[in-house]
Amino acid sequence: MKKSYRFVALCLALTAFFCIISAVCTAVCLENVRKTTNSTVNRLVAVMLEKYPDISEKEIAEILNDKTAVEDDIEILEKYGIDLKSDWISYGNQGSYKYVVISAIICLAFGIAFIVVFLLYLKMQKQQTMEIAKRIERINLGDYSLQIDENSEDELSLLDNQIYRTTVKFREQAENSRKDKENLQKSLSDISHQLKTPLTSIIVMVENILDDDDMPLEIRREFLNDIKHNTNTISFLVQSLLKLSKLDAEAVKFRYEQVEVKSIVDECIKNTAVMAEILGVRLETECNNIILNCDRKWLCEAITNIIKNCIEHSHNGNIKITAEQNKLYTKISIKDNGSGIDKEDLPHIFERFYKGKNSSDDSVGIGLALAKSIIEKQSGYIGVSSELGAGSEFVIKFFNN
Hints:
CATH superfamily of the largest domain: Histidine kinase-like ATPase, C-terminal domain
CATH topology of the largest domain: Heat Shock Protein 90
CATH class of the largest domain: Alpha Beta
Strand content: 5-15%
């Protein structure tokens, strides 16, 4: 709109300018007419008084103010060189018509200037409209690399800015879509790789059982235990992937509540008690009287996965779970004295399907990734520090605000 307002203001300024010029010229013209008329009348009166001394001033005034015109009077004036059709007053002011010509030229110039300005404005608007149309066409063709250098605020520039913002959003969406496709392709490849091994083992063992009716009971039982183990691995993998997919798709609605941290930790220890007992790992807790605003179910899922990872790397070792709270954050620490994590593996420990050098054969590399996603979705932070051969410490922080 500002460009239209500027155009209207310019036209008004031009109109005012030419009106002033025209008024000045008209004023000059009228002043010359007045001077010429007064001079002529004065000369006539002087001549009349010289030739007719008996005539009174009253009679002269009546003659001058008589507005009636007779054909004979006009003919008499024409005898003395005064043509009322072409001259204003007398032959001595034959150039007075120039003022009329000048006024006409001024008005004509104003009209031409107005038309020129208006045509330039239309041309500029058309050019800008064509540029916007070309940008939209490029966007439709998938070209989102558009830049806007102008910062004007007229109606077309505002539209142009909105198109640019839309282009930026489309570009971000296209980039995110590309990344999502890459991640999906990678995830599918990883899932295929993770499922391929246990499924192949199951198929081979089932075929052996079916093909050999006389298979010894001990071997058959061993095969069935392996099938059960692989089935549990596949079940865990599928469930974990489903949970990750829900978190990635923002399909999980966390139900926040005031929960005692000790109750969450106790439930996690209960979930991992069998595994800890088999591997001879002792679990200690120290997290009394600390309240945390969180989703109990999902946080328990995350901490359970972390404890499982610590148990796998702490055969006959100890794991200590502590919690503390200050004015800034609530901190949960899970520390073991196991084999630790290699420095090369440490930056990748939370990546999906990543298996470090010290990982067990049963590890699928998804538990820590799921734990990290759950904690971060609840506006938390998770970090890890480790020393090879001395154990690892996972630290979870939730800021109080």
